[in-house]
């Protein structure tokens, strides 16, 4: 099918898709609480005659569409459904109606684009093989992708490859980016607790002062990046929380510092953890204090497979032209739990431009919103990808 005809057919459903997106945005649900969102997805799939299974990883849904041409290959298309625990400051009509929750990362749009594509593929099944549309819960820290895998996702819905699509503010509408190999970072968290005796602020010589190891630790942490991580590798160590003290004249007996580690290389991930432990322990020892270190490994890096990345680039090129896709975009230090699926199956994560300029705020900002203008384009990408992967005549 010609790209103009594809776009026209999807455009005819644009108003309905925007209404679905606004409905989801107004009723945000966070990790594993996506009951209403999941029900809406199931309602639309039922209305459009698309078979599905629900209740996977609590609120996840997988819809299956089979092409009308012979073929044994199957692929997964994944969209996340959950919102964030944050207060929305937008004033438009479809703003969040749930206090303290909002769709601050565009998962309302991701869900909608996949619904639009699923409907189109059901009505136009000119492809050879099977498409599994994976509506995943709990991407925002809940590892919903891993939970779906643990509950037999790929055994119940065999996929030779799996793909995901994420919006990117700051990138112009109509443009896409991706890359072969590591694209998004791991997301590890850690807490270091420095323990000493504490004491009177006027008599520090009578105490073991936890603020000194804290100071050494903060400076030493950044030296790990500058002096242990090779210059051609990327890595970040950032502190987000420091808890200590009860009075201006009391040296705290305990200081807790919490932060995150981000990198794209498993060997660098090991190095960051090892050196962070070294710096914390030795900083404490210099001041006769102790350091307790709790290092938690979170999402692994998102690593795109070469062949599947080429498939994604070909799908985008067929849709918007080669000049509108950057197939070697630099790695990004954000994380996404599509990483777990990409550890199990080859695939590719693509980012679609959400708009450029002051009107388009970054993900996780209180005045962010998914751009309705890219719903049809995102759905068209999914369809174009199916045509590439499952050998349909485009």
From TrEMBL:
Its EC number is 3.5.1.32. One of its GO terms (molecular function) is hippurate hydrolase activity. The keyword Signal does not apply. It is an enzyme of class 3 (hydrolase). Residues 189-282 form the Peptidase M20 dimerisation domain. Keywords: Hydrolase. This is Hippurate hydrolase. It comes from Rhizobium halophytocola. The lineage of its organism: Bacteria, Pseudomonadati, Pseudomonadota, Alphaproteobacteria, Hyphomicrobiales.
């Amino acid at each position: 099918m010609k790209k103009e005809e594809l776009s026209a057919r999807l455009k005819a459903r644009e108003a309905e898709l925007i209404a679905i997106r606004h409905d989801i945005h107004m009723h945000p649900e966070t990790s594993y609480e996506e009951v209403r969102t999941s029900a809406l997805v199931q309602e639309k799939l039922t209305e459009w005659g698309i078979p599905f299974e629900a209740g996977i990883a609590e609120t996840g849904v997988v819809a299956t569409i089979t092409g009308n041409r012979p073929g044994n290959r199957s692929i997964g298309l994944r969209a996340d459904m959950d919102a964030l625990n944050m207060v929305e400051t937008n004033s438009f009509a479809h703003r969040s109606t749930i206090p303290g929750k909002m769709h601050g990362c565009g998962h309302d749009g991701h869900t909608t684009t996949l619904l639009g594509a699923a409907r189109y593929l059901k009505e136009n099944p000119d492809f050879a093989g099977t498409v599994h549309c994976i509506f995943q819960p709990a991407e925002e820290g809940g590892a919903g992708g891993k939970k779906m895998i643990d509950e037999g996702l790929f055994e119940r819905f065999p996929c030779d490859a799996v793909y995901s699509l994420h919006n990117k503010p700051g990138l112009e509408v109509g443009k896409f980016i991706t890359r072969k190999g590591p694209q998004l970072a791991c997301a590890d968290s850690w807490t270091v607790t420095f323990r000493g005796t504490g004491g009177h602020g006027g008599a520090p010589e009578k105490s073991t002062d936890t603020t000194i190891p804290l100071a050494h630790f903060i400076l030493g942490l950044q030296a790990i990046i500058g002096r242990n991580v090779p210059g051609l590798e990327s890595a970040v160590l950032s502190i987000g929380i420091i808890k200590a003290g009860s009075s201006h004249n009391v040296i705290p007996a305990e200081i807790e510092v919490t932060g995150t580690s981000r990198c794209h290389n498993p060997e660098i991930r090991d190095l960051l953890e090892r050196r962070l432990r070294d710096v914390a322990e030795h900083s404490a020892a210099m001041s006769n204090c102790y350091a307790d270190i709790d290092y938690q490994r979170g999402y692994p890096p998102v690593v795109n497979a070469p062949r599947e990345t080429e498939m994604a680039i070909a799908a985008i090129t067929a849709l918007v032209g080669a000049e509108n896709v950057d197939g070697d975009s630099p790695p990004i230090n954000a994380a996404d739990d599509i990483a777990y699926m990409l550890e199990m199956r080859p695939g590719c994560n693509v980012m679609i431009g959400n708009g450029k300029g002051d009107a388009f705020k970054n993900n996780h900002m209180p005045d962010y919103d998914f751009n309705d203008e890219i719903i049809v384009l995102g759905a068209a990408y999914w369809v174009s990808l199916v045509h590439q992967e499952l050998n349909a005549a485009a």
